[in-house]
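agent> fetching stored inputs for the adenosine-5'-triphosphate docking request
agent> found them:
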Amino acid sequence: MSQALVQLKNVKKSFGPVDVLKGVDLEVFAGKVTALVGDNGAGKSTLIKGLAGVQPYDAGEVRFDGELQELHSPRQASALGIEVVYQDLALCENLDIVQNMFLGRETLKSGTLSEAEMEADAARALQSLSVKTVRSVRQTVSSLSGGQRQTVAIARTVLRDARLVVLDEPTAALGVAQTEQVLNLVRRLADQGYGVLMISHNLYDVFKVADDIAVLYLGNMVAQLETAKTTSNEVIGYITGIATDVKEG
Amino acid sequence: MAEKVTLQTGHEGGVKGQVSAYFSRLKGGDMGALPAMAAVIVLMALFANLSPYFLTEINIANLFVQSAVLMVTAMALVFVLLLGEIDLSAGVTAATGMALFVKLTNTGWDWPVALAFGFLVGLVTGWVLGMFVAKIGVPSFVISLAFYLGFPGVMLIILGSGGILRLEVEPIKAIMNVNLPVWGGWAVLAVIVIVALVLSIWDRSRRLSVDLPVRPIIFLVAKIAAYLAVGGGIVFMLNLPRSLVAANPIRGVPIVVPIVIVLMFAGTFVLNRTQFGRYLYAVGGNPEAARRAGINVARIRIYAFMITSTLATMGGLMHISRIGAVEAAAGKIIVLSAVAAAVVGGVSLFGGRGKLFNAAIGAIVISIIDNGLGLMGFPAGVSFIVTGVVLALAATVDALARKRAPGMRI
Ligand SMILES: Nc1ncnc2c1ncn2[C@@H]1O[C@H](COP(=O)(O)OP(=O)(O)OP(=O)(O)O)[C@@H](O)[C@H]1O
Ligand SMILES: [Mg+2]
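agent> prediction call returned; pasting tokens
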């Protein structure tokens, strides 16, 4: 098998006396969608906050492209090309799509905003993901649907030269058609060579787009399976803990 | 060669497409300054019919001078209003700065140095307010109320028992009381039109250089024509002799008019075309999103408060120029009217939405109401009541627009 884009080894995290991650291993490959599943409180969000650098791990190894890396700040994470789309998306409703996509990294020319350049680049980033659902790239986000917002948030990571895109429940609040759109987008992201790590509670979604499924159970990575070689019953077994004998930490 | 942009950018289509797109934006609740601009026209027509004095040269000139202080104070407040904050002390801060300025000049200081100290009061007060709000987390309403209550006391101490000091600096008095020569008014208009034209052409050529669609050129022509028509009309009117005494002809654009316009252009440039301006809107729209995008939210907040009180001090300077003195009660009412003006013009109290132009046009609405009702012989009380009603109306529109914004359904 080729080298993993991201490799976590024996990653640990505690909040005071509570061990939330108890030595987690995970591999995410470029060009593949890895689904991260697990019951409420399993530690999924904690795991990705470590990757994002917002809540560094207490112990363990993080390798990016095979190289050992420190991940202690969001800056370090984004320098490596790790971009996280949180569930609340963090978009400014009063700004338009272009402005949101470039927020914090505006293109400037002699101290002033290069609107035309940003508009063209944002439009191209959306086009590269075959996004056709937005009416205009100058629409304000307040006028977008939930799926369109998710699309903007995901496309923003592409603009930021992401190599690993981490998505926290990207379809949680969406209806059927919009879920479909976002899942297609996630798939295209991977097909274009990005590594994708997607948290989801919806096994239907997981089986639809994921290449690999990683299952967290009470802070332990109990299985990392290839989607093609597993069934939803097996995955459910791991999620609920029936399939494994987990040593309680 | 980069890939061609095929997604819509809002600039596509001919005149018809653009116009219908504009109307669909209006229906979407994005009315901007339109209601206030309509109000200006309706009120002008109304008062022109009701009072024979309203459209006289002298009254129009008066209206500009009277509304200047309100306009500048309202524009100043936009910077904090965009963050969803408020600075109730902007007026008294300005007045205190001006009290210091006048006091220093009256005790023999060079006026430019004294003026710098006056503005320093604004700058420092804004910084302190910003620190309280951004670093400590005191609500801006409360901390600025504290300054609102405290500064008049400082002023009393500066001004002494009389509570008033005369301004003796002629160049400052000139701001509100001297007019440009006839050619000066036209020159100002020419500069404005040229700046607007150059900026538009610059934007257009940059869009073309990256292969983006541009609007039909007729819109640019129409915009410049509108500038020329409105600006030309105003300059023409202000250049007519308006003295009540024929022997002493008064004519020309008051000096304050180009000053207000320069402030508005410069501020608009900062808001629309700089990173700081963009961040101001971002923080006002969603501070958490701004923070995650790497924006130093606290710094943006502090700068906003500093700009507000410094710009408000400019308004204070115009006020003492007009009155010819600084009095202890100055700055208390103006700030409330300025908030009203901003909201009437379409600046949202919820943050994230509004332009300096909105504040200026709102100030004109309120000034016209004040001026028109005064001419018709109504007591000042009526004008207050009408202004209050207009504000309530505008605030309701603001709240409804926010409710109706399709994005708010989440
Ligand atoms: N900052 C914190 N302080 C203390 N405990 C925390 C903190 N963050 C998370 N936890 C605990 O760690 C455990 C794992 O939380 P986490 O949010 O990672 O779960 P999750 O898998 O994302 O769950 P969900 O599916 O509900 O989002 C939970 O028991 C939670 O209470
Ligand atoms: Mg979670």
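agent> quick read of the result: The interface with chain A takes residues 2-3, 5-10, 28, 30, 203, 206-207, 209-212, 273-275, 278, 281-282, 284-286, 288-290, 292-295, 352-353, 405-408, 410 of chain B (CB under 8 Å).
agent> awaiting further instructions
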